[in-house]
Amino acid sequence: MTTSAPARWTAALPVRLDRRYLPVLGTFVVLALMLVVGGTRYDNFLTPAVVSNLFINNAHLVVLAVGMTFVILTGGIDLSVGAVLALSTVVTAALLQAGWPVPVVLPLAVGVGTVIGLAHGLMIHYFQVQPFVATLAGMFFARGLCFLIAPESIAIGDPAFVGLASWVQIAGQWRMTSSVLIALIVLGLAFLVLHLTRFGRTVYAIGGGEQSALLMGLPVARTKVLAYVVSGTCAGLGGLLFAMYSRSGYSLTGVAMELDAIAAVVIGGTLLTGGTGFVLGSVLGVLVLGLIQTIITFEGTLSSWWTRIVIGVLLLVFVLLQRALSLRRT
Amino acid sequence: MTQQTPPPVVEMTGVTVEFPPVTALDGVDLHLRPGEIHALMGENGAGKSTLIKALTGVYSPTAGTILVDGAEHRFSGPADARAHGISTVYQEVNLCENLTVAENIMLGAEPRVLGGLNWRAMRRQAAAHLRRMGLDIDPASSLGSHSLAVQQLVAICRATVGDCKVLILDEPTSSLDADEVAHLFAVMRSLRDEGVAILFVSHFLDQVYEVSDRMTVLRNGGLVGEFVTADLPAAELVQHMIGRSMDVLEAAEEAAERAERPAGATPLLQVVGLGRKGSVQPFDLDLYEGEVVGLAGLLGSGRTELARLLTGADRADVGQARVSGRPTRLRNPRVAMGHGIAYTSEDRKGEGVVDGLTVRENIVLALQAERGWMRPLPRRQVDELVAGYIERLGIRPADPEALLRNLSGGNQQKVLLARWLATAPRLLVLDEPTRGIDVGAKAEIQKLVAELAADGMSVVFISAELEEVLRISHRIAVLRDRRKVAEIDGDGASMDRVVDLIAGGGAA
Question: Any CB–CB contact under 8 A between A328 and chain B?
Fold first, then answer.
């Protein structure tokens, strides 16, 4: 009588379902439900155009969430990604305005993120600064630097950059921009790195127990620093994608975007304590966030702030769900 | 001495480790030979862990030489030591529960394909290693889904991957039951027969005698000597370890004489039908002043769960409790403390001492919590109190400002006891107070329990060691499968009777 429902389902499935996948599966179910609900409520909702836009509008967030997943898997956090994204857009726009060629600007913009991420990693590992504090400092630093470079929004008119940004592949109603392509490549790389390299498995091991990982002889120091480098680099790249999307660089972009990234990761089933979660889940999380926005737009009458309320509720539900799952495990 | 001794694979000579001003290890020698199980014996704080850490490069010795296969080595850390064939398995399983069994065994020596992990080969190789250990588990399952004993064996499995010449097992048996220990020993013997040198650290003398060929005894950071196990009687070994005779133990036994309980006395704590779903079945228990009640049962029989209900650490969902005859709900530890009920958890590190605080701070913690932050204890009173307990319990080092994490397990336990004694409890619930601590400290704690009871305190004593429970308890509650199955008088209890009850054979 007391057998829990999920246990019975898993027992009934022909393939044994590892409970590690349950949170991600939950996110997937929520996403599917939202699509079904949206599709029945509104005309023109379940169309390739809407789905394409979902990806196009959130490509930068996908990249941020992928980077954030690395950090959170180690049990850390990166609060700087929103500010680093803004810095990257500003650097891109300012350098292009100054007439630098695109092949130089792109790596520089991404490199800014890499350097800041490296600084975080070194501070966190070698000076034992709390990740929260180190990346908070990085956030203020990056945001301040934005204003130092350009207090006003800079429009990007460089033809090569605009050309790159407006590259699009069209198949029927499906559209894929260069941003989406880059985001998907990042996602694929991240997936391979996390699951098929020693670095990736060490990221998980650190999240499972840093002391244990150390005693297992795994390269903890290097891995931890690298996780922040990955997150910083992703933030830099995210900035580039956002600059392509908005055709401008502006110091006030991405305010609180780090929180969206964290929310996406958590909704995607990754535990904030580290060690459990999947990068694919984080992407599902981003899609859930984006879909909420889409639905509210379709609803028309609702204030867009409802997005925030729904995200808040969803976050709570997912955290409680994870709590219930981990409780049953013990 | 017909046996030929092969040349040692590890030769430590005159190894000294200093943490100024403390000399943790003073000129110690250790020789590990291939195909031998070598026991490292000593009280807590004798320097066993320090010696292991000096060998594996966690600490760097200030003097002495370490030869591995005849060549001098100073390892930079466990990973470096492991690369030279010296693997360590620690008391706490230091693996990652969130990873799969296969990863836990193979990471670091994983098979690769095209620069990435080869999961299939990894699982296959892990399965082969597991079979060697006599373990039949799915390498793709996550480690956290297995029992502690299996995890321990997986840890050993990991240690023996690749070229393992020396295997160091630090207290591998402290959380295993008898069958699991037997399994572990079988694995150890087969590794020994393959020519691995094994260093075995354990507090259980009978286990050491069962499995080891030779032993090195340490005391207070110094070397007592190396002995052939078969030539050293247990009593002599204990004397070597504690450096004094066993009269402390005997004193404890004498002190266990019970003050006669007056007829019709009100129990200090009386519980009726107290229970909690999934934790322990409803039980009755009366606890009187001046009495030690032992809880006997196997690991997982509900000993700790019962203690947690008595002390409000877990909330009961059925049953009543009366303190001195008055009905009470023991909702949380704070309420219990208000009634004079103190609880020391079996999880000393996690739920007991605060290892980043000093001895002084740890001792006054509970007393100060009871007084509230508005009324801080005067510093002079604190110093007197702390000095008093350090003296009375023999806490070493006798320094109120020492950080708890630098104390040995036994001394941490004493500090924990002092913390609760400082609140002058009427009922003291001790969950495994003697686990993982040495013979000397064990005897001291047993003696203290007897004294406290003689002074009128009520004590609930939990221990996995039946002998100990039998020796100091006036009454014994026996648990089996999360149910209290019997309550017997300590005086009339024989080991066999209790074992029968625990095993489920006796009259329940």
Answer: no
